[in-house]
Amino acid sequence: MTNAQHARVPSSFAYDTAPEHHLNDVEFYLRPSDRADIEWLLSRDDPAAQNMPRLVEGILRYKMRKAGKAVGKGIDQIALPMKCITYAESTGSVRKGILTVSIIERPGHIPVGSLLGATLLGMSRHQEEPLKKEDGSTVILRVMKIETVEPV
Question: Which helix (H) or strand (E) covers residue 57, if one does?
Fold first, then answer.
């Protein structure tokens, strides 16, 4: 497993592109505990969070405002922290990693404090969203598979 490369992008990059079809007009879903964890991350109490790019912070705040409540059986098909997410980019590359409430990159993990992690957070299986890349290009990110990670 490898981590996708993340880029700092200008704060002028608009995160307003939405998929065409959503259940009950909700684009993203979060559990109450995930909201609390993201609020903590955004509060910058974690010293590492002080280096979070403004675009990532904007995406996370947008998702906090717009997300529906993730409950019930469908929660297994939502990209949430501590789930292994298999995703594909429109360029054809397929990767996977465990989504974590962090900004620190580790092999096999996707921190929500990165462009990739913030974009994936709350997405449903088969949902597509734009992802700004390091070279300034934008690719479409598609969630292929979501698996629950067993605690060690």
Answer: helix 54-66
| Cα distance between residue 37 and residue 98, in whole Å | 16
In 10 A of CB 129, how many CB atoms? 20
Q: Which helix (H) or strand (E) holds 86?
A: strand 83-89
Rounded CA separation 43/93 (Å): 34
pTM value > 0.85: no
pLDDT in tens, 1-32: 344 443 333 333 333 333 334 444 567 888 88
Residue type, 119: T
Phi, psi of 137 (to 5 degrees): -80, 165
Q: And the tokens for 20? A: 């065409």
d(CA 46, CA 2): 25
d(CA 151, CA 91): 33
Find where tokens 């449903």 sit: 124
pLDDT digits (tens, 9 = 90+) for 34-81: 999 888 888 866 666 677 888 888 899 998 888 888 766 678 889 999
Task: Specify whether the CB–CB gap between 110 and 95 falls below 8 A.
Answer: no
